[in-house]
Amino acid sequence: MRRVVSVFFFLLPLALTGQQLTTVGIIDIGKVTMAFYRDSQAVRELEEMTKRLQGELDAITAEINQLKERQLEAERAGNKTLSLQLEEQITSKTNYLREYYRIKNAQLQERRNRLAESSSFLSELQQAIAFVAEDQGYSVILKSSDPNLVWWSKQVDITELVIQRLLKAQKRP
C-alpha cells in the first residue's frame, strides 16, 4: 500500500506538468477573400485599381529618377542653383509619392475589407477556419496581417486549406 501511495505521489507532479501545447496557425484573409471571390465583379475592379495604382506609382518613381539624373548632371556641371532647385523638386515629388501611396493604399484596403466583411462570407469563413483549425490541431489562428507577427513558418499557414474548404463547401447543394 505504501508503495502505491509513494508511486502515486511521485507520478502526481508529472501528471500536473503534462499540459496541452498551444499550436498557432496563420491565415491570410486577403488571399482567401480574393480566391473566394475570384470571378466576381468586385474583385476584378479591385485588381484593376491595384494595377492602375502600381502604374501611377511607377510613373511618379520614373519622374523622380529622371530628376535625380538631372540633378547629378547639374552638380557635375557646377550649376548649384539648378541642383538645389532639382533637389527641392525631388523632395517634393518624393513626399507626394509617399502621401499618394498612403491614401490610395488605404482606399484599396477599405475596399478589400468591405469585400471580406459581407455577412454571408464572414460566416462561411469563420466556419471554414474553425473546421481546418480543429482538423489540423491548431488552438489559435492569427491573421497574417497582424503587425505584431514578425515571422512564421509556412507549416502553420492554413490559408490554402481554408480556401479549399470554402470552395468545397460552395460546390455542395
Indicate the percent of residues in helices: over 70%
Please count the beta strands (DSSP E, at least 2 residues each).
Answer: 2
Structural class: mainly alpha
Tell me what portion of residues adopts beta-strand conformation: under 5%
Strand order, biggest sheet? 1-2
Cα end-to-end separation: 63 Å
Uncertain residue ranges: none
- Taken from the alpha-carbon principal axes, the silhouette is elongated
Mean pLDDT: 84
Number of domains: 1
What is the gyration radius calculated from CA atoms?
27 Å
List the helices and strands in order: HEHHHHEH
Give the number of helices. 6
Major sheet size, sense and barrel closure:
2 strands, parallel
Please provide a written account of the structure.
This protein is mainly alpha-helical and 173 residues long. The chain has one domain (17-171). It has helices spanning 2-17, 29-36, 41-77, 80-116, 119-136, 159-171, and strands at residues 24-27, 140-143. The chain is elongated and about 95 Å long.
Task: Give the SSE layout.
Layout: H1 2-17, E1 24-27, H2 29-36, H3 41-77, H4 80-116, H5 119-136, E2 140-143, H6 159-171
Parallel strand pairs: 1-2
Essential attributes:
single chain; two-stranded parallel sheet; elongated
Summarize the structure.
The chain has 173 residues and is mainly alpha-helical. The chain contains 6 helices and 2 strands.
